[in-house]
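So, could you explain this one?
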Amino acid sequence: MNGSITRRRIMAALGVGSVGVTAQVLAACGESTPTVVTKEVPVEKTIIKEVPVEKIVEKVVVKEVPVDKIVEKTVVKEVPVDKIVIKEVPKIVEKTVVKEVIVEAAPAAAATTPIRFMNYWAAGTRWETMKAGLEEFDKRYPNIQYKLEKLPPGFYRDKVNIMFAAGTIGDVLVLNGARMREFSSMLLTLNDLLGPANINIDDYLILAREYPDKVDTENLSVGPALKGMPFMSAVNGWVYNVDKFEADGVANPTADATWDSQLEDGKKMSNPDTNHYGFHNGTGGEFRWLPLISANGGWLFSDKKRPATSSGFNTKGGQEAFQWYVDLAYKHGVSVPLGEIPSLLFEGVTKPFATGKIGMEPGGIHGPGGRKLRVGGRFTWDNMPSPKSPIGEVRYSTNELGHFISHRAEDHGTVETSMTLISFIAGEYFQGLVADGRGAIPMFRSVINSDRYLGFQPGMPKSMDLIRDNFLSPDLYGLHFFDGWAQWWNMLHDEMTPAITGEMTAMEAMANAAAACDKHLKSLQAE
């Protein structure tokens, strides 16, 4: 195997994770369809005897023809025949004509070495999409075999770490940019494989190609080296309960909304005594509080070096943004405190927004298909414009995941078939299924702009265009991955979470996070 295992990768294999990137055995084989030509020849003697359920023809002479396959009523190989049993004969036939069947069989394609295919689309809408896509792949490429290792998201991430460290990783696997950077030496570069696979890379919507000046969006590539084929993409935004807004006399949100105006709307929808709140603010940073920090003058890092020199979230504007986020629950009482969430939930509902008691929430809006299942038709909901920060800005955190081919495919002789598989998943047919199920943002250019994706479906948001527009906004940013990023990410969340759970002030948490994260970044500079 190519590549080396660093101390950091061994640490990752023992349990250090990153932002959510996360398979049953399926086999596919098949054979070609034969060409059949028939002509009539007379039979010298045919004796047919009437029996209740069968007919016996003795001494039938059939011209010998070589064939490879059996088709209906086809003699495969000439041998002396004493008896041929023909069922369901209604009466005696005095004259019989036997048709000589000549089969010109096309050679069946040889089955390939199975691809070890690791994937985390293992449940719900996403699994239905993956299953339907692979069924079509089986029809188009019956000779390509694969072993699908279908794993839950969290376990998938941990298993990938361990298998990279142990040298037992699959041939094809889905990764985010953090894992790509960490294990890039063990992944194939795909540029030279695009031509033989008849791929036009311009058919795909890849952020690093759309915005070449935004180096933080390199999720599938390392500079000019393409490492992965597009699979799915994600972006943050806001969703709101249309019915609750109406019931509480709050006007539908508009693009003119600000953090201050949104707070006032949240107050109108909040009644802690009845477990109703204007907001739900979770602990996750990627799509919740980090975009707020970025919209108010902060960012993840102070620069775009790899690795970054220092963190960039603990600025004056960043502090104001995080304080506003925390104050919604612990100062203004318009966001449900995390400790009170269980009192909102009921059987079959495990997410606060899905209860119908929450007015709005920030988060990832790229998977409305999953939210539809959680809401279950109990109320009408939609996407809403992101409110502007005190400096009048919005920011959108983007992410893209791809399918990558490891060097293990070279050992197994599956590089070509693996490229066929990941190109199919990146292509128009499979991405159309992503558009139908809406478990993520599709990455085939024509699909993301189609009515198939943007059109209304019952139980889905009417403003699907907001998902696309947020993802492609000039105000987007990427997570700026580098080797060692995952550890920085975990430290950031470990230190910021106590403020969101009410165990620490926002400023204490930010100071602790900055100290721990910057110490880690400094250690990376010395390597």
About this structure: Confidence is low (pLDDT under 50) at residues 12-101.
